[in-house]
Amino acid sequence: MVTGGAGGIGRAIATAFAKAGDDVVVADIDGVHDAAGALGVRGVTMDITDDTSIAKALDEVGPVDVLVNNAGLLSVHGRLLELPAPDMLAILRTNVHGTFLMTQQVARRMVAGGRRGVIVNLSSIGGRQPTPGMGGYESSKAAVDALTRWAAVELAEHGIRVNAVAPGPVLTPMLAAGMPEGSPARAAWVSRIPLRQMASVEDVAAVVMFLASAGAAHITGTSVPVDGGQLLT
């Protein structure tokens, strides 16, 4: 199950799992059925901030062996002195509380069914490297990293691994439209990256796939940067 799977990074992750032959469920608040139809996978409408919506969706799709907590709110920003308090709460409600609710409900079902499983959260290098004006989002992703470690240490006894992937700037269709090639805005972001290019959605999906695989069987509680070296600067 890939939350926020209808577009962007989530869609790339769902595509990668589908190409590997996995039974994929795309979960999102809207656009689910178009995305699922295009990818040839199952789709379910779900609001990750609503316990009842999550439970209903999980009842519909059945057992989940791999959960990718990709859904999140990225579009709300503001500097510390200007960000409206309701906006900060909206960020935390989606990115932190939503990830918590998904992790809790899926893990409960894994444990109850005696199934080992994998949870991969989408974090951000912003949780470790601040950018002015993006602190609300970045604070939420620092919390996702902490939630990842919390879940990993408590779920290990059940054979459930929990890790995170922390991208830097990712060249999603939305970002590409807002920062076209050659624009000063894109050049400013790329200048911070030692490899001098943004990550593709496929770059992120590849790391998610690895963490979900048997090749990562002894990895849990970590957050893997996919940032072209940006955290080194």
Order of helical and strand elements:
EHEHEHEHEHEHHHE
- Give the percentage of residues in beta strands: 5-15%
Helix proportion range: 40-55%
Low-confidence stretches: none
Count of folded domains: 1
| CATH C-level category | Alpha Beta
CATH homologous superfamily (4th level) name: NAD(P)-binding Rossmann-like Domain
The number of distinct helices, counting runs of at least 4 residues, comes to 8
**Average pLDDT across residues?**
96
Q: Tell me the overall shape.
A: globular
Q: Tell me the number of strands.
A: 7
| Strand order, largest beta sheet | 4-5-6-7
The termini sit apart by 35 Å
Q: In the CATH hierarchy, what is the architecture at level 2?
A: 3-Layer(aba) Sandwich
CATH topology: Rossmann fold
Give a brief outline of the structure.
This protein is an alpha/beta fold. It has a single domain (2-170, 201-224), classed as Rossmann fold. It has helices at residues 8-19, 32-39, 51-61, 85-112, 135-155, 173-178, 184-190, 201-212, and strands spanning 2-3, 25-28, 42-45, 66-69, 117-122, 160-167, 223-226.
Can you offer a commentary on this structure?
The protein starts with a strand and ends in a 7-residue tail after the last strand. It has helices at 8-19, 32-39, 51-61, 85-112, 135-155, 173-178, 184-190, 201-212; strands spanning 2-3, 25-28, 42-45, 66-69, 117-122, 160-167, 223-226. It contains eight helices and seven strands. The chain is α/β, with parallel strands linked by helices. Strands 4-5-6-7 form a four-stranded parallel β-sheet, sandwiched between helices. It has a single domain (2-170, 201-224), classed as Rossmann fold, CATH 3.40.50. Helix content is 45%, strand content 14%.
